[in-house]
Amino acid sequence: MENNDAPLLLENIHKHYGKNQVLMGVDLALKKGEIFGMMGKNGAGKSTLISIINSLVAPSRGRVLVFGHDMAKSPKQVKQLMGTVPQELVNYNFLTPDRLFKSTSLQFGMTKNRDWIEYLIDALGLEKYRHTHIRALSGGFKKRVSIARALLHHPKLLLLDEPSAGVDIELKDVIRAFVKKLSHEGITILLTTHYLEEAEEVCDRFAFLGEGKIQMVGDKTDVLQMAKKEVVIHLKTPLPALSHPLLVEQNDQSLTFICERDTSAFELYTSKGIPPEHILDISVNQGTLEQVFKKVLK
Question: pTM score, two decimals?
Answer without folding.
Answer: 0.84
